[in-house]
Fold Hydrolase.
Amino acid sequence: MIEKRKQSTEGTVYYWTNKINSPTDVAIVFCHGLTADHTLFDKQVKYLADEYKLITWDWPLHGKSRAYNNFSFSNVNKELVAILKQESINKIILVGQSAGGYIAQSFIREYGNMVVGFIGVGTTPFGKSYYKNSELFWIKHYSAIAKLYPYRYYSKAGAKAITVTEEAETSMYNSLIKLGKKGVLTAASAVYSEFLKVEDEVQFNCPVLITYGEHDKTGYVKKYCNNWSDKTGFPLKVISNASHNANYDNYEEFNELLISFIQSL
């Protein structure tokens, strides 16, 4: 993967992409979760890079893209559009893990004509109808709670809570350590503030696949994903031997699901 960057009035956004033998105007774009970075999808890159055009990125306030002003889902969407234009990409398949699924859904809501498929990994739907106020408590107060813990303890406990394999845990821990406590608090406050503003569901005009790990105990992810699938009819796949970072915990099973989904489009 080749590191690149895109400068805007709000900051510099870093992304990574590959060269493939056959020219294409379609790419798979991977959106990592809150406080993670592009390395969350290393296992997918290794599996797919020889055959498919890929883009991983540190979306604003994460990884190398941290010096960023005026964070909003709309501004993040504009950054991705600029990256796609720079890479001569017209159509994308979006893969969004956790809060990366919020980034993906926001992009689909605004630029749905560019998206030919969406896979959610341990993410939850836009739309206030899915959520009780009591269940949103931890989202509203995440930063205040996280601020109370010594950061290395928080990083170790946090990484362990959302993974089941040692390799996935180490990867997430490293991302948290690089981001730092200030970075975590800034990103969480900005992302959850945007999420809480969203009132309505996204109207998808592309195929959707919902997935989560069988051991995912993050918030009410399982409940929301099941309700999302029940309400919309979107297919739901539970990834075995995996937690919240299911695409890393059991990357072999996830990669097979991903390939099958891509080939069905």
